[in-house]
Specification:
heterodimer, A: two-stranded antiparallel ribbon, 25 helices, 4% strand, B: mainly alpha, 2 domains, 6 helices, 68% helix
């Protein structure tokens, strides 16, 4: 369904960024513009998400064709349940990190175009979530990355400058590969529109026709690019060092948003397009079940297993709060890749849920770490202590966020992990499920490490900061953390409502028909339907129907209640 | 023609990777710059007349037979959207190079310009702060921090 309001989600941060360039010397005004922009984005994305959740299936994807060029000739902007969930979470996380920065960032840094950069980062992130065009996705990535390079080196300390090159050069390399792969997609299929690509792949699948040679190597190239952005095993090594040197609010924003953009693109492109092997099974009720290329699935499974397990071991071995949290970002990405690797509608729904809860929770933890540093002057666990006595409120916020990350019921992490791991067992990937459970236990260990060293330890940190003075100077930070923790609590206690949206996101990713017809029009899928009818006429659906039963989507209600 | 382009891409890649493996960040930055050229050349190789599109092949076959080109709408072969338009069976367009990759390359050049400008500025700032742009010295600096 056409709805041109969705492009406002990109226009708002762009406009706010440009305005705050003009207001660079007016601190209060540029802060106001920033807050206004994040709040508007949050409100608009929430209202659009509620609208498509209430709408019937045929109207559940909002599309806007840029410049009035019909797809696939122009650039399509698409707002479906997955994009909607992620944009809502991104706006909330952005608002939290932005407000938090008022109490930790230095005035000098703030004058170095901090406010516009935060808006341009959001512009890039929102555009990557919304775009329906592969090349436009490349452009969106570049906008996001440019802003992140500048935020990474903002202030220009020696440590930041010497660490920045790793991140920048790796990302430039990845972007180049992305560009080449996009060019190859065009050479192979003559289109860059994601829906059009999905249509071509679905037609191949319906006809059981082999995809062009080199399709798999293209898929691997894309996986390399997005894996690097999303910090999958073994492409994660840049992450902990990078997040260690930046101001803590920016680390929170990066930890919440940037890796998730990489995961999102894998979730968007692989089930729809690149994981296909050009075969399909027709179920008894006439739906087509696309085959999954075993090589791609194996790569995803291996990446998920090693990312989850090795990263959590890395986190346990660290002794600085920031490093523990940074390495945990990677470990949690593993669960999302697990969800994508299983590749059923339910698992993808779990992956979508896990992504948004992780964005919120991880950012909250980083922001807590910022206040801890304010209290003690360090994030070294050996020197921290007695924080619960100094500041019980921060302790409560940290504990809720940490336990959400670990996944204790009824907090949000539990519902994400439960669905993903259960689907893993259903689909015969029990080894991934076991690794997921063990990883959860080790996550608990490392979170308790921060808790017992930092908060419960009765020895006060040797610091001259008065608790009252810190509390007074950190008011925006407390507001920001409270906002994110309330969001996390809502995701946990209101998981049933959120899963209604997430299940639809999973269904839309699993069955390309919704996305294709929404972007290209109803006729676009007719060819596939014809081919399926031909297939049914030729071969009566036999044993496939028995399989089909277990693969249909479960009701959202059953899903959400443990 | 495809062969010439492929060799160009390969050589550019080789040189840029050689530069990127250097010890000084100035060379690495040049390597990055060359790498984007290699990517642009490879996109050029993806399109253009050497790799004939479906419509062009049809047109050529039809021209040899002396009749007007007739495009069969094959379900599984996708022509570049702009060429596959209703005018594609007229000769001038059918022999035209696909314009879209050129637009992609243009965009990519602009973006890589921006990245390059940022990278070079960062190098100048780093050199002022740390008095060095050697990779090993920067790693030492990072270890201290």
């Amino acid at each position: 369904m056409t709805d041109h309001r969705i492009i406002l989600l990109c226009v708002i941060p762009l406009a706010a960024g440009l305005i705050s360039i003009a207001l660079i010397n007016r601190k209060a005004l540029s802060r106001l513009v920033g807050i206004l922009s994040y709040t508007l984005m949050l409100g608009l994305s929430l209202s659009l998400l509620l609208k498509i959740t209430a709408a019937p299936d045929s109207e559940s994807i909002l599309v806007s064709q840029m410049g009035g060029w019909t797809a696939p000739f122009g650039i399509s902007i698409v707002f479906d349940s997955l994009s909607g969930l992620l944009i809502c979470a991104a706006a909330a996380v952005g608002l939290g990190a932005y407000v938090h920065s008022f109490s930790v960032i230095s005035p000098v840094t703030e004058r170095r175009y901090y406010h516009p950069l935060m808006q341009f980062l959001m512009f890039g992130v929102n555009l990557s979530f919304l775009t329906g065009d592969l090349f436009n996705l490349f452009v969106a990535f570049e906008i996001m990355l440019m802003a992140s390079y500048a935020l990474l080196t903002i202030g220009g300390s020696k440590a930041q400058l010497s660490q920045a090159y790793k991140y920048i050069l790796l990302n430039v390399l990845a972007s180049t590969i992305f560009l080449m792969a996009a060019g190859m997609v065009y050479g192979m299929f003559g289109t860059l529109n994601i829906a059009d690509l999905a249509r071509i792949v679905a037609e191949h699948e319906a006809a059981n026709k082999e995809l062009p040679a080199g399709f798999k190597s293209l898929a691997v190239m894309f996986l390399l690019v997005f894996g690097l952005k999303g910090a999958f095993f073994p492409l994660w090594f840049w992450l902990p060092d990078t997040y260690y040197t930046v101001p803590i609010s920016i680390a929170g924003l990066f930890g919440g948003l940037l890796t998730k953009v990489g995961v999102y693109t894998v979730a968007r492109l692989f089930p729809l397009i690149f994981a296909s092997d050009g075969t399909s099974t027709i179920l008894a009720d006439g739906t087509m079940l696309g085959g999954t290329s075993p090589i791609i699935q194996t790569i995803l499974i291996v990446a998920a297993a090693f990312t989850m397990f090795l990263a959590v071991l890395g986190a346990v071995s660290q002794h600085h709060v920031r490093r523990i949290l940074s390495v945990h970002v990677i470990s949690q990405v593993g669960y999302m890749v697990f969800g994508i690797a299983v590749m059923t509608g339910n698992a993808l729904a779990g992956c979508a849920f896990y992504m948004i809860q992780h964005m919120v929770v991880k950012c909250a933890l980083f922001l807590c770490c910022g206040v801890m540093e304010k209290h003690a002057g360090t994030d070294d666990l050996d020197k921290l202590g007695g924080l619960l006595k100094r500041d019980w409120f921060l302790g409560v916020l940290f504990f809720i966020a940490a336990m959400s990350l670990v996944g204790l019921p009824p907090l949000s992490g539990f519902f994400g992990k439960m669905v993903i791991i259960r689907e893993g067992f259903f689909e015969g990937m029990w080894y991934l499920g076991v690794i997921g459970l063990v990883t959860g236990a080790i996550t608990l260990l490392s979170m308790l490490k921060i808790w017992s060293y930092g908060y419960w330890n009765p020895d006060q940190a040797p610091t001259t900061n008065k608790p009252e003075a810190v509390k007074a100077s950190c008011k925006p930070a407390y507001a920001a953390i409270t906002l994110l923790v309330v969001c996390a609590l809502f995701l946990g206690l209101g998981a049933e409502a959120v899963y209604k949206v997430a299940n639809r996101a999973g269904e839309q990713l699993d069955n390309p028909k919704h996305y294709i017809t929404a972007v290209l029009g109803d006729d676009a899928y007719a060819k596939v339907d014809e081919l399926i009818d031909e297939r049914i006429a030729q071969e009566p659906a036999g044993p496939a129907s028995a399989d089909g039963e277990s693969l249909t989507l479960v009701n959202p209600e059953e899903e959400a209640t443990p | 023609m495809t062969m010439v382009l492929a060799i160009c891409v390969a050589v550019t890649f080789a040189v840029s990777i050689y530069l990127m493996l250097g010890r000084e960040l100035k060379g690495v930055a040049m390597g990055v710059f060359l790498l984007s050229h290699a990517a642009n050349l490879s996109i050029l190789a993806m399109s253009g007349s050497p790799m004939m599109t479906h419509a062009q092949q049809e047109a050529e076959v039809a021209a040899e037979n002396g009749s007007h080109a007739h495009i069969v709408d094959s379900p599984l072969m996708k022509d570049p959207p702009i060429l596959a338009s209703q005018y594609a069976n007229e000769q001038p367009l059918a022999t035209m190079v696909d314009p879209l990759p050129q637009a992609l390359i243009l965009t990519a050049i602009v973006i890589s310009f921006g990245v390059m400008a940022f990278l070079l500025t960062l190098l100048v700032v780093t050199n002022r702060k740390t008095q060095t742009i050697e990779v090993a010295d920067l790693a030492e600096e990072a270890r201290k921090a």
